[in-house]
Each structure stands twice: as structure tokens, then as C-alpha cells.
Amino acid sequence: MISPVISLLAIVLSSILTENYVLAQSIGICPFLGVSKKTGTAVGMSLAVTFVMTMAVAVTWPIQHFVLEKFGLEYLQTIVFILVIAALVQLVEAILKKYVPALYRALGVYLPLITTNCAVLAVTVLCAGRTGTVIYGNTYGFGSALVNALGSGAGYMVAMVLFSGVRQKMENSDVPEFLKGMPITLIAASILALSFLGFGGMVENLLGV
Fold it and tell me: Where in the sequence is the domain holding 23, given as residue range(s)?
């Protein structure tokens, strides 16, 4: 029997490394490319996404299992989840506008676009769908879903911060004229994503799950 703590740790590490939504699954690429020019902005965006992810899972998980499934309304999952995410984004936007106006202005249009960030929706759907299955030796439940959401948010931040460092480094590099702008950005993102393939099997071997 694997310890529940080890199981949750495995979920966190896999969410950050082997199942990273941006670098391993290519989900949430739009804000990844649009808000990663500066590290401060990247961190702010990542914190906002992590908050929305975690709160969205905390709200949508019980809705899925105690309302949609109970009354045979599973076909409404996508609509209901997006409405919940949109409401949470409005909350984050209002908080940042009042208390952190500089970050609010820096994020610009990408802040309300968290509503359509497919990474947030993907996490909520994944967490709802995994419930009841055995993940890393323990049954996946509400607690596992919240940990999964936090780990996914941390993985999103890792990807954003790493790439912001790469992009700042490229600004001081001699890039060929025909590669400047989006071409070199996409090439750098691809190389960074390839580097994460090296984490394959690490969680299982490290924790013995």
C-alpha cells in the first residue's frame, strides 16, 4: 500500500514535469507565448491561472458529481465549467484592478482570456474524469483533484518563468533577421518542450509508485 502522502506528491510532481500542460501537452499556448516576455508578468499571470484552476476544481468537482451526474446532465459539463471559470476570472480581474493595478495593466487582454484558456478547462475536466480511479496507488478523490490543480498551476508557472528567462536572453542575442519575432520564439518554445521529455518516468522511479 502506497502512502497517501507519497501518492499526492507523485500527482504534484507529475503535474509539474511529466504532465506539464504547456510543455508536455501543448495546452494553453496562447498566454504562454503572449505574456512570457517579462518574468514579473509571467509570474503574475501564473499566479492568477493557478488561483482560477484551483478554485474552479473546488467548485466544479462537487457540481459534476452531486448535480450533473446525479441528474443525468453530464452533457452540460463544458458549459457549466466555462461559466464557473468565467465567474472566477471576473473575481481575479476585479481584485487585481483594485489592489495590483500595475500587474492588471501589464496582463492586459490576456487576463480576461483566462476564461478561454484551455489549460484551465482541461484541468477541471481531467480532475472530474479521474475521480474513482486508482492513481499512484490510491483512489483519486476531491483532495487529489485539488492537489492536481495546484500542481498543474505550479507547472504552468514553471513553464512561464523558464520561457520568460529564455526570451529575455534572446533579446540580447544576435538573432538572424529572418528568425526575429515569432519564428525564433516558436523554435525556443519547441526546444524547451523537448527538454521536458527527459523527465519521463522520473516520478515513478523517484517515489517508487
Answer: 4-200
